[in-house]
Amino acid sequence: MKKTFIYALRHSLPIFISFIPVGIAYGVLMQNAGYDFIWTGACSIFVLAGSLQFLMITFFAGGVSLITVAVMALLLNSRHIFYGLSFIEKFRSFGAWRFFLIYSLTDENYSLHCAYKHEDGINEKYAYVFSAALTVFYWIALSMLGALIGSFIPFDIAGIDFALTALFIVILLDQMKGAPNRLPAVIAFASSVVCILIFGADSFILPSLIITVALLTLLRSRIEAPRQEQEDS
User: Given a cut of 60, is residue 232 above it in pLDDT?
Assistant: First the structure.
């Protein structure tokens, strides 16, 4: 267990480092909107969706209806449906822990789970659980810290919400650097550009995801071939 925890800690540290500006930025924005660190922590626990949490700040400030919030949350986080589909069998084999892993399947944890590589002495189930638990803890703690900092130190918050976009870019580049095949990234990029041009910046995410998943499914054998060759060698 100790070796597995150290493995999870080592592999989740890049997420922790990237969460420092993002989590603190979120906390500062929440404090600026009139919500203290307790409300910030509650949001991070019960919502646990960075992009939606940033968007919710504008919802809170603008008095948006709950129906609008629900619809936007569904559309914005619909990508998690596709995340879950790829881990159905894996999580099912983990027993009761599957419920926590489902709850904690954020973009960052999805990235860590996909990057898992077997090592001697590492328990796969608890490597997933520890990685997910650490990432969730990082996000909650840093967002609350940001709210506390925001309550004592005045900030010019213009542009601070770009920290989340920067985090996604870093995760993408890290995945591409170690990937034996970069075709998935090319497909995702191309479908995003096409869908932005067709549907606009506010509505491109869901159709882009559908197109990307469909193409990845059709090209699955070609995408997995380099990884299989790498494992065999």
Answer: no
